[in-house]
Amino acid sequence: MSSRVWLARSFAVFLFLLVLLTRFVKVDWGDGYFFHPDENNMAQAVSRMSPDDLDPRFYAYGQLPLFLSYFSLRLVGLSNSFENAVISLRLWSGLFSSISVLFIYLIAQKLFPPRIALACFAFSIFSPGLIQSAHFGTTESILLFVFAANLFLSLNFVSTGNLALLLVAAIISGFGLATKVTALILMGPVYLAILVHLFRTKKILLSLLTLLLFTLLALVIFILASPFNLISRADFLSTLKYEASVATGTSPVFYTRQFIGTLPYIFQLLRVFPYALGIPLCLAAAIGWFLSLVPSVGKHKTFWFIIIFSSLAYFVYNGQLYTKWTRFMAPLFILAPLFAANFIKAFPASSKVKASLLVLCLIPGWLFLTIYFQKDIRVTASEWLITNIKSGSTVLSEAGNVVNLPVGDHQLIVVNFDFYGLDASPTLQQELPNHLYSADYLLVPSRRIFKNQSSPSFPYSQRYYQKLFSGELGFLPVKVFSNPLATLLDTENAEETFSVFDHPKIRLYKKITPKSQGEYQSLLTP
User: What is the reported pLDDT for 3?
Assistant: First the structure.
């Protein structure tokens, strides 16, 4: 073995250790509080399961991740309590994210020279969105795994024609469907590979039979791994119908208000990818995607066809939805390092620009990782309130968060007011001036309301926050709690779920100029 090969393999092992570090470090983040709603819902479902009744009675997602969490806890002799379920879900999420990164590295080895493949490996390790999804005990990392695995198996199938690869892909695709039924679109690379094989071999009947058997096996695995979708099909179909109506915007709910008036595709390009990938990697991936359209030769041409078409189909379908959450784009985060590596490849090996780009693409992910090395910002804010605010003070905060600010047993009077319902409720509009009159402090725990209810469609909310931020309410800023990441990139401008579940910016205002209830009412009336 040459020294160059040994060095490359040693560096790959080092990068794999970094994969484990970035996915599993601080798996108990949150300091005992769990702020992600999907994670909470899944953990509660796991905690409801028992040996006599495995039905989690939760059908927004499939049962596979819930079964993995429940049975792994049973295997190691731990109870399926809510807290244990959260940690178990996060461990599985980290594992699937780690395997996904390895699949992308294996794909990169097929497309690029060794050094560029290693650069792609590093990009996927330090991609902020991938690090974040690995730290949430939700479905995203499993879906990333399904997409990456199907791509890898599809590329190998078009190279070898080995039907056993499609058997493995069918099992993995079934697991994807058992995690979330929308994983159907993640089977696209396999269908493309079968289509390519058809054009090469001209064996129409065999290709159609292969496609049918692949689909049927995936459906069988789906039913076996998520049986309560069939057993409790009325509840499953009802939930599926509701979730679809939320996704398309036909059922307006308070937690989708940030998408009012947003443009499909443009929103994701401006508010999701630059933050979830980091601006340097995002730009490199965008340029690399266009470069991949340039015709190549040999098997790489087929490989790029499957990768490009799969990514485009996924983006076109999910990008047009009314709900444009960051998690809906997560499977594309795993492909971005491939496209970025394709851009890096265009530079000469000794180029200083190339080296600089490599470093720049890695910095955002490393900075994002620091979120999980630190105390949760909400706990930090709570401790500051306890230490610096006089006992008995009244703090007016916002309701609607998964967990309200944990101020512990300190004698603060915290009023969590329903600002989400403010504009539709004359009763709340009458109550708010009374709360402002009684409050000593105002707390804005995240960007969720003031950024989402700032349009004329929410006249009362719009006026409230305008008067607060201008100082006209008589409250002035005392303290802002934020992650150091915000000094380089203001993630409050991202799609809200990218920041509010693990690093929201928290603002505290103190009453400096008291006013009467009538004055508050006058200031707030549109």
Answer: 66
